[in-house]
Design brief:
Blueprint lengths: L5 E5 L12 H13 L4 E4 L11 H15 L5 E4 L5 H14 L3 E5 L8 H14 L4 E5 L1 H4 L5 H8 L4 E6 L4 H8 L7 E4 L5 H5 L5 E4 L6 H12 L3 H10 L1 H6 L7 H9 L16 H13 L10
Parallel strand pairs: 1-2, 1-8, 2-3, 3-4, 4-5, 5-6, 6-7
Length: 299
């Protein structure tokens, strides 16, 4: 796992109209991603709306993904919680279930000091058998994992990477000093994947890959193969689409785009709510400009 490179999709969770998980569609989406070159699947991430699902539902969802993928690609499980004990608990359970790695987040709402932040992650890293990926996303959590805490965690034998989603290139530069054969970085922002790869990132944990998995895979592969200009041109060509997928809070736009494409991403869990009409119209226009199908029936 510590050598994992490429496009890791931050998979949506398809829900039925009554709010239950659509497991049949979930399995179909896994097959579609594998057929289109996705290098690994992240289940139970932010894009999977796990802030509004129960632990029981999360376990069933992860079980569905792991069993259906059946080793064809690695499956990473979002184990994050603002409770250090709950994050550790999830990390142990998901490791036992066969997750290839765990995405662990900094505590949201509950703020802490430097030592508390360090120990928050250490609890999971020490307890789990699957390696963990640190998740730095201050726009969601209200706090950053300081570069010094990253430095301390980067040498733990069960910490494999950081998902860097602050959008702060200066921060990424500081973290890049600690990358090694045993500790890597993944872009957590689709709009700056290539800039972060120029700093040593091994790929992206991608929302965009939910609608264009082959393109994201090829872009990352091109960069890793030394075709830097080609990879950059792909990033720039689809920048408007990438930005449109975040014009409202994730995963509202990407699930909407998937439904417009006929990919049947299903409904939202409250407080996620359908897009504002003016944003929906803009999303459709940008999707068409990017060459994506917009099914008339879905409009």
């Amino acid at each position: 796992m510590k050598k994992l490179t490429g496009s890791i999709v931050a998979l949506v969770t398809p829900f039925h109209e009554d709010g239950s998980v659509d497991f049949a569609r979930l399995r179909e989406l896994c097959d579609w991603h594998i057929a289109n070159g996705t290098d690994a699947i992240l289940a139970l991430g932010t894009t999977g709306e796990t802030a509004s699902t129960s632990l029981e539902e999360d376990i069933k969802t992860l079980e569905c993904v792991i069993d259906h993928v059946n080793g064809r690609v690695p499956v990473i499980a979002g184990a994050g919680s603002n409770s250090s004990e709950m994050q550790k608990h999830k990390s142990v359970i998901y490791s036992q279930m066969g997750a290839s790695a765990l995405l662990c987040i900094s505590p949201y709402y509950v703020k802490t000091n430097e030592e508390g932040m360090y120990r928050h992650f250490m609890m999971s890293a020490d307890a789990a058998t699957a390696p963990i990926i640190l998740y730095n996303v201050p726009g969601r959590t209200g706090c950053k994992i300081s570069p010094d805490v990253v430095r301390r965690l980067s040498v733990h034998p069960n910490v494999m990477a950081i998902k860097e989603a602050s959008g702060d290139i200066g921060y990424a530069m500081k973290v890049a000093r600690y990358l090694s054969d045993d500790f890597t970085m993944y872009s957590g922002n689709d709009d700056i994947t290539i800039p972060l790869m120029s700093l040593g990132a091994s790929g992206v944990i991608s929302v965009w890959a939910n609608v264009m998995p082959r393109t994201v895979h090829d872009m990352v592969t091109d960069y890793l193969a030394g075709r830097h200009e080609k990879a950059l041109q792909t990033q720039l060509r689809y920048l408007d689409l990438i930005n449109a997928l975040f014009m409202e809070v994730n995963p509202i736009p990407v699930k909407t785009a998937m439904n417009l494409m006929g990919l049947q991403a299903g409904h939202f869990r409250m407080p996620m709510y359908p897009m504002a009409p003016e944003n929906l119209g803009r999303l459709k226009r940008i999707m068409r400009e990017a060459g994506l199908p917009v099914q008339e029936a879905a409009e």
